[in-house]
Amino acid sequence: MHHKFTFPAIIVLFLFSCSGNSNKPHTFTGIIEGTAVEVPALTGGEILSLFAEIGDTVEKGQLLAVIDTTELKFQKQNLLGVKKEISNQKGIALTQLERAKKDYDYIHEKFERFQSLLKNESVSQQTVDDLRNQLQKAESSVTSARQQVDAIAAKNIQAEAQLQTVLKKMNDATIISPLSGTITDKYYEESEAVPPYSPLMEIIDLTEMWVKIYVSETMLPHIQTGQRVKIKPDGTARELSGSISWISSRAEFTPKTILTPETRTSLVYAVKVIVPNEERILKHGMPVEVIVERIMK
User: Fold this and answer.
1) pTM exceeding the 0.85 threshold for the entire prediction
2) How many angstroms separate the CA atoms of 41 and 173, rounded?
3) Where are the domains of the chain?
């Protein structure tokens, strides 16, 4: 009896042991990162004022810097003058067009009348021919006047586009924060000249962080997007909650900075984990442990 149940008991024990190991949470290491945005100076020029320093917490829409717009103001005044001149030219061109139309209508009516008289031989052919020439010239004058009006309208469109460009540059000279976060770097100081589109400072959003881990092919079927995971910052006993937001569909070799040389040739899949960080516990660049439980399918 004793020998009869020993072998099945060993099998059950082995299966239970394997099952217990397979359900054991897996721990990965990674570096916490935040969404970093380099705030550009869309308008170049001298920095008149800076309102944020490295380490400051800023809110979305907060004023960060002001760029000098003196030259842009001169360009604006010049373009406003150009538009006023164009407006005057438009008035003159419309008056000329109206006059040309009236001349054409008068000659056209006279030409039609004299053509009727020609049938009765009340006027000469020469008179009708002369009126036909005058009518053609009047028609050309109308066409020319219309072209002049169109040309002035095109100039106005160009001047308006230039004016709107200047106004946008003037508006962009007031630099506001595109997101809430922490200033992690600053590339210029007050009174320095910044080229257009150059980054002025870097802001990292610390309210929601993320960490990338790498899982093996055997682990892949047991995780899914939306799955909750635990995050443990190094050196603390506190655990935070995160969720898997993305799983790569392409295998890659294990990054050399992640694991030991013996496992660097292994094929793994990148997994991105999102971690809410409203209390600002996590910092950019902080090493953490990511604890993932296998989902049994």
Assistant:
1) no
2) 7
3) 26-65+184-292, 70-171
pLDDT (tens digit, 9 = 90+) per residue, 195-247?
999 999 999 988 899 999 999 888 888 899 999 999 999 777 788 999 999 99
User: Over the stretch 42-56, which tens digit does the pLDDT of each residue have?
Assistant: 999 999 999 999 999
CB 175 within 8 A of CB 196: no
Q: Superfamily assignment of 26-65+184-292 in CATH?
A: Efflux pump adaptor protein, beta barrel domain (2.40.30.170)
Residue 64's alpha-carbon distances to 49, 60, 76, 118, in angstroms, are 8, 10, 24, 83
* 3-state DSSP assignment of residue 86: helix
Q: Report the distance separating Cα 83 and Cα 164, nearest Å.
A: 12
Nearest Cα to Cα of residue 176 among 280, 286, 39, 80: 39
Task: Please provide the distance, in angstroms rounded to a whole number, between the alpha carbons at the two ends of the chain.
Answer: 38
**Angle (nearest 5°) at CA 169 between 168 and 170:** 90
Q: How far apart are CA 153 and CA 155, in angstroms?
A: 5
- At residue 228, the 3 state secondary structure works out as strand
Count other Cβ atoms within 10 Å, centred on residue 190: 11
